[in-house]
Amino acid sequence: xxxxxxxxxxxxxxxxxxxxxxxxxxxxxxxxxxxxxxxxxxxxxxxxxxxxxxxxxxxxxxxxxxxxxxxxxxxxxxxxxxxxxxxxxxxxxxxxxxxxxxxxxxxxxxxxxxxxxxxxxxxxxxxxxxxxxxxxxxxxxxxxxxxxxxxxxxxxxxxxxxxxxxxxxxxxxxxxxxxxxxxx
Length: 184
Known about the structure:
184 residues, alpha+beta, 7560_t:CDS:1
């Protein structure tokens, strides 16, 4: 079955060819063909999902050596319009029309500061244990490297009895690290 690129109208023999075309020709796409159908979410709803990410990230931060490393938190049934509202104006925002997937990446100190603004909370990325004097945090920088925190949204579908069900999932991937702190 022929597939048509919604961005440049080129026609391809298969969906696989269209996905390859989009990955090569439209790698940094920010155009969302259905953008007008995504309504402005109410502030209460935006705040709810900002808080949900903060809670999930903080819960994934622990206080022992085994809790460091790559982490991922996801929220199922995450509304597409909220993801777009939060991230569409960011320089790293990307949209794959064929895969119906968004990606937005934050890196280094600038990314850390920008995420503080986006989630509206300065301490979203750290968790302290005063008794153990330990801190676990989302890693953005160390002595040698800069690290990424990525947010993505994808739509999955489930077909049953000639009915198609859709669900959006937002995911945050990051690296957690820990250390000791002293109260001064």
